[in-house]
Amino acid sequence: MASKQPIGYKCCIAGVLLLLLASVAALVAVAVIQDTWRFKDYSSEYGIVIDSGSSRSNIYLYKWPGEKENETGVVTEQMNCKVAGDDGISEMKVDKEKGAKSMAAFEVCIKKITEAIPAEKHKTTTLFLGATAGMRLLQGLDEQRSSEIMEDVREYLSSLPFVFQNASIISGQEEGLYGWITVNYLMGNLLEKNTWNKYVRPQGEKTVGSMDLGGASTQIAFAVQSNLSGPDYLPVKLYGYPYNVYTHSFLCYGKHEAGRMILDKVVRESSDPNYIPNPCYPKGYIVTFNASYIYDTQCNEKPTNYNPDQQLFFVGTGNSDKCLSMVMRIFDFQTCSSTQCSFNGVEQPPVTGDFMAYAGFFYTSSAIGLEGTSDLDQFKALSTKFCEKNWTVLKEEKPSISEKYLRTYCFSSHYVFTLLADGYKFDKEMWKNINFQKQVKDTSIGWSLGYMLSLSNMIPSEVKEIFPMTDPLFAGLIFLFSALIIITVVLVFIFLIRTCY
Ligand SMILES: *[C@@H]1O[C@H](CO)[C@@H](O)[C@H](O)[C@H]1NC(C)=O
Ligand SMILES: *[C@@H]1O[C@H](CO)[C@@H](O)[C@H](O)[C@H]1NC(C)=O
Ligand SMILES: *[C@@H]1O[C@H](CO)[C@@H](O)[C@H](O)[C@H]1NC(C)=O
Ligand SMILES: *[C@@H]1O[C@H](CO)[C@@H](O)[C@H](O)[C@H]1NC(C)=O
Ligand SMILES: *[C@@H]1O[C@H](CO)[C@@H](O)[C@H](O)[C@H]1NC(C)=O
């Protein structure tokens, strides 16, 4: 009898421990898989954003798992359709034929996007359009035409089978802020899941600055200390956390308009319109433009005796130093009435932290052979090297880049360098923190995703505590296993007391 006692005792202990372990394991398993189970039955949701830039429109289709709207990083880009042609919507209504042609190109993209969305989802798919600097410039020039264009656009978009939400001209500041939101949303900087499946602010509250280079404007945005204030500081609250975002948009300093400002300087420097040496065009490249190509914009002052049809003949000289000094001339680095300025008298605090540089920044650095992070001296050396290659060599080396763009990269690499180094004041150390990218997690970086997330309240300013256990089934299971654990523990306790005394 006495010899049997310890065996029964051991069995009991083993049994109880096994039960305890099994309950804990079941509890953990339920907690871990509940997330996957809970959303298994829900299908995807879709949203469309039309980015109407100065040089063209781009249509983005975003997709996310249904019922999971308010998490960070779950919305991804499903498709992206570039509307064919060279004009943004600001060129609509200039002449009938051109208007009809660009409308047809627009419809090709809409058709592709529509086909990519399951038919039963059309009536829940939201649709947004945002027009940027091209339309801002037109609005300043011809308010009537710009509002007519927006009216036409709204009418067309409401006729589509989607939930049309908003079509407006967004301000430069909104553009900068939405770009910043996109970058930080995609990088998961705004919210993260902790071990208990609960959403919390990530450790260190780090955000990444955002720099966008479009055709007609450029934007910088980064989070700064909360005690700074002024017209360029936007206090925002995302998922319950406050951020103070410095953001400024420079109209006319997009790649295309800046290029025209430089051509204007080049033209004024020369006495003969039939032979204008351009240090920013590669050696061996020649081109003729109508004067209107350079001056039909608010960004350049028209010369006296301006004739839009005058022919201007440019001859590339590929002189990197001269090109750089031409580029410098479109900036005013002197005027500043506050402690620190970027340029043209615009106040800007010192840049801090990591930065994502996308759109034109990415295309330019990629053309000179750099992607991702780089070194300031390396960037400068590669810009010089690019400028010094003649046209024959360039065309051979970059067969995939069209002539229209290839001729611009000598100018734009110097432009990007000057803007970042002398304008925003990235020094040798800070330059290493700039990441030249066009995508994060296969999703294009731009203002459009942040715009959709903000306007559809998918990044709410306040969140209720999001507890993982909201589903009754899982709550029940968790309750059951928790109860089992408690009972087991009590049993063990009683057992121990019994054996000890
Ligand atoms: C559309 O968006 C703009 C901001 O981009 C906002 O000011 C405007 O109120 C919105 N309109 C509607 C109808 O939601
Ligand atoms: C903001 O706060 C920092 C310290 O957090 C301080 O050094 C700085 O002087 C303050 N700036 C202003 C404008 O109050
Ligand atoms: C230049 O102007 C002429 C006459 O206005 C026009 O026919 C031609 O298409 C223009 N060329 C360019 C390149 O804009
Ligand atoms: C272009 O540069 C290459 C290499 O530097 C040289 O061999 C070639 O003759 C140049 N072509 C012209 C047209 O200058
Ligand atoms: C989640 O997003 C929806 C819009 O998709 C919004 O109506 C809702 O308030 C958000 N939820 C929370 C907890 O903020």
TrEMBL record:
Residues that span the membrane, as ranges: 473-497
Keyword hit for ATP-binding: yes
Key word Nucleotide-binding present: yes
Biological processes per GO annotation: nucleoside diphosphate catabolic process
Record's GO cellular component terms: plasma membrane
Keywords in alphabetical order: ATP-binding, Hydrolase, Membrane, Nucleotide-binding, Signal, Transmembrane, Transmembrane helix
Cited InterPro entries: GDA1_CD39_NTPase
GO terms, molecular function: ATP binding; GDP phosphatase activity; ribonucleoside triphosphate phosphatase activity; UDP phosphatase activity
Pfam family of the protein (one): GDA1_CD39
Amino acids binding ATP: G215, A216, S217, T218, Q219
Active site: E175 (proton acceptor)
Signal peptide: 1-26
PROSITE patterns from the UniProt entry: GDA1_CD39_NTPASE
Family in the record: Belongs to the GDA1/CD39 NTPase family.
Protein name as catalogued: Ectonucleoside triphosphate diphosphohydrolase 3
Biological classification of the source: Eukaryota, Metazoa, Chordata, Craniata, Vertebrata
